[in-house]
Amino acid sequence: MEHLYLTLLLLFISFVTLSVFILFYKHWSDYTNPNLPPGRPGLPIVGESLQFLSAGWKGHPEKFIFDRMLRYSSNVFKTHILGRPFAVLCGPAGNKFLFSNENKLVTSWWPDTVNKVLPFFTQTSSQGESKKVRKHLPQFLKPEALQSYIGFMDTIAQRHFASGWENKDEVVVYPLATRYTFWVACRIFISVEDPNHVSQFADPFILLTSGIISLPVDLPGTPFNKAIKSSNVIRKELLKIIKQRKVDLAEGKASPTQDVLSHMLLTSEENGQFTNELEIADMILGLLIAGYDTASAACTFIVKYLAELPHIYEGVYREQVEIAKSKAPGELLNWDDIQKMRYSWNVACEVMRLSPPLQGGFRQAITDFIFNGFSIPKGWKLYWSANSTHKNPEYFPEPEKFDPARFEGKGPAPYTFVPFGGGPRMCPGKEYARMEILVFMHNLVKRFKWEKIHPDEKIVVDPMPIPAKGLPVRLYPHKG
After folding, report:
1. What are phi and psi of 231, to 5 degrees?
2. Are 159 and 186 contacting, i.e. CB atoms less than 8 angstroms apart?
3. Which terminus of the chain is less hemmed in, N or C, by CB atoms within 10 Å?
4. How far apart are CA 122 and CA 423, in angstroms?
5. Using CB atoms within 10 A of its CB, is residue 447 exposed (0-12), middle (13-18) or buried (19+)?
6. Per-residue model confidence as pLDDT tens digits over 28-50
7. Per-residue pLDDT, 4
């Protein structure tokens, strides 16, 4: 019997040793090319993921990037994050290279967590799905369509501030900002504007977005697990809306051009087939995330910086009050009003430079190529970081100083200010986001001044910047 136990123990030890050897061999085999960028891959599986994520959790995601730019190269370095070998391209040259070589040398890539939360990404190539989504957007994001949305946005903003801000001494900004931007997205994309109906989506959405890029641990209570459950709840609700819209379109109760959903249902693919309901649900889900998530973070940080910088607030206030005075009672904002908000938009851009809602983006090499003299193998993942330029004194002198004047005239140099990405995959809703943010600013500053309740509130980036306590503020309504 003792011999049996000893044999089993030796077999177990041999198995563990062999497994560890295979694990390390597989890990290091990704880095055998002698001309790879400088950097270190870290340990198998984990790599440098914890350092990458923890820098964000501590509120300084740029630290992971700048530490390695300083240690290895200011242009490109290698690392191992999210279970994959990565090359991180830095600076305007790296941004330009990735943005201008989309579908030539690189293509879009998403972490496995995104694929599991939004399964349509795994049914076909993410590149193909991205093209499919973008095919439905142009007519809804062209200038004449965008101009028609301003009235909707202003109406929703007025209802939002009346129900969530007015007659309150204190509010928590981030949940309110997400409610506003999500309400707008629901109205524009799927024609849902009843606040009670919108609220059925809103709470699960916060859980979804906080866990969509996280450690892929699918255990009860983890952010990833909550994101999967929340996406299922939202998808089920979207399928109800899709089925009802099909009926309404057939009976003439809905317009074929009223929103993105109708367009998706009535537009066939090149092969003549129509997109199935589940796929449409996930495409709408992806659009709702894109339409609300980054804008809500931007709105939140606008409130933060205007509280901290009274002279900046006064400049925004003067501009917005002039516009408000030019309006007749009950008259909604229009395109000309948005064009007059130049200083306000410069302020919003400076907020997004200092606290970019989109920290960066992922790509995948579809062929071997050379960048800055280093080899990037086919299949490697790539990452660009907004902070590699936004907080770099080479491109923005005194980078921690808040200075909206940076955006006057021609503004920053090309590929240095990238809150919406760039190239073929630049956020197609950039102008939509600009209008949404400016409408929010207009309705906010004409009603209130405010102060932060926690002056030193910590910022957490997971995956977007969020004040740790949601940014509680004390409101001071304007008299008259």
Report:
1. -65, -35
2. no
3. C
4. 24
5. middle
6. 455 667 799 999 887 777 788 88
7. 55
Distances (CA, A) of 330 to 158, 324, 326: 11, 11, 12
Give the distance, in angstroms, between the CA of residue 67 and the centroid of all CA atoms in the same chain: 24
Task: Work out whether strand 381-385 and strand 84-89 pair parallel, antiparallel, or are unpaired.
Answer: parallel
Of 314, 328, 323, nearest to 341 by C-alpha is 323
Q: Residue holding tokens 């300083």?
A: 70
Q: How many CB atoms lie within 10 A of CB 379?
A: 13
pLDDT of residue 146: 80
Tokens linked to 104: 């030539």
pTM of the model: 0.87
Residues 6+ away with beta carbon under 8 Å from 200: 237
Phi-psi region of 421 (alpha: psi -120 to 50; beta: other; left: phi over 0): left
User: Per-residue pLDDT tens for 81-127?
Assistant: 888 899 999 999 999 999 999 889 999 888 878 878 877 644 444 44
* In contact, 113 and 227? CB cutoff 8 Å: yes
User: Rounded to whole angstroms, what are the CA distances from 6 to 11, 17, 354?
Assistant: 9, 16, 61
d(CA 94, CA 78): 13
Question: Measured on CA atoms in the order 142, 148, 150, 155, is the torsion positive or negative?
Answer: negative
Q: Tens digits of per-residue pLDDT, 53-87?
A: 888 888 888 899 999 999 998 899 999 988 889 99
Report the candidate in 159, 167, 154 with the shortest Cα–Cα distance to residue 196.
159
pLDDT band at 133 (very low <50, low <70, confident <90, very high): low
Q: Which residues, in sequence order, are CB contacts of 324 under 8 Å at separation 6+? A: 442, 446
In sequence order, what are the residues at sequence separation of 6 or more whose Cβ sits closer than 8 angstroms to the Cβ of residue 54? none
Q: Per this entry, what is the length of the chain?
A: 480
The answer to whether the beta carbons of residues 31 and 377 sit under 8 Å apart is no
- Cis peptide bond upstream of 143, omega within 30: no
Question: By CB neighbour count within 10 A (0-12 exposed, 13-18 middle, 19+ buried), where does 403 fall?
Answer: middle
